[in-house]
């Protein structure tokens, strides 16, 4: 903790929330048990610490800590996520809506987000993370070509739509993807 607190500007007051750090460790362990992979406790602690600071002090602290680019990016994402968490009803939010802001969030930022919300919000974020991890679109560029589409911007647009529909559970099979693509194509040619 001294590495973090030593980087603070002299005029900054912060209360170190030891209970928050214990909660972070527990939630990180639960994350690893459920999802595996990596979830750095240092990155999680840095997010807790730096995101608790006033926004204008964060760059100075990040510079003093000589944080790596990945962590600086995650802190910037965390600033956006913090604002979003204050305005969204997670329990009513579709996974595709969550994905608009969390699509590139690392596991540490997702765990931090879970710490900052209600138990219902935590369950919803955990469900989103599971859906995101398991979301696979069966259609690819080759399949779109086989269906008669010409390569171009529409490819990416269709694949993103299919991903969002899969993430929300509105489409669950390759056949449903193809039916959606055909419906979408017939709607564009009218």
Which structural traits does this protein have?
single chain; 190 residues; mainly alpha; Methane Monooxygenase Hydroxylase, Chain G, domain 1; 2 domains; 0% strand
Would you kindly provide a written description of the structure presented here, covering whatever features stand out?
The chain has 190 residues and is mainly alpha-helical. It folds into two domains: 2-134, Methane Monooxygenase Hydroxylase, Chain G, domain 1, CATH 1.20.58.1960; 141-185, no CATH class. The chain contains eleven helices and no strands. The protein is elongated, with a radius of gyration of 20 Å. The model has no long low-confidence stretch (mean pLDDT 86).
Oligomer: single chain
Largest sheet: none
* Ends apart, CA distance between termini: 62 Å
Whole-number total of structural domains: 2
Report the CATH topology name of the largest domain: Methane Monooxygenase Hydroxylase, Chain G, domain 1
* Beta-strand proportion: under 5%
- Cα shape: elongated
Number of helices: 11
CATH architecture of the largest domain: Up-down Bundle
